[in-house]
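Could you join me in thinking about how sequence relates to backbone shape in a protein? Label the sequence line and the structure token line clearly, so we can match residues to local backbone shapes. Once you have written the record down, we can walk along the chain together.
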Amino acid sequence: MARVTGVGGVFLRSRDPKALATWYEKHLKIKLEPHGSAVMRWTDEVPVGTGTTAWATFAEDTTYFGPGKQAFMLNYRVDDLDTLLAELTAAGVTVDPHREAYGYGLFAWIVDCDGNRVELWQPLPKAPATSA
């Protein structure tokens, strides 16, 4: 049976697409191609071997996406959450002070220049298998 195997793209609607793309390039270091979009390759994953993509639905009245009627929220994998958050704070980006940590990673939230809440996730390395 055919099935979905991952996220193939993220597409954002914006009043000013060029400004939004530039914001993501500047603050989240998403490398834009000459035509204005980006390609993120799984071969770039950090730490190696942590590659997963989550997909979930939420109730209409969820507060997880922040205030407002945002219809979706993007989750971006990052390689150094603390350093990135410090850089974003210094640049004046709205950073939610709330943090969450789980066995599979660290989470934080920011707001982009269009007012969208964005989730940042730093995957943790998988524990090495031990033999008995």
Remarks:
- The chain has one domain: 17-123.
- Residues 17-123 form a domain with the 2,3-Dihydroxybiphenyl 1,2-Dioxygenase; domain 1 fold (CATH 3.10.180.10).
- The radius of gyration is 16 Å.
- The first strand starts at residue 74 and ends at 77.
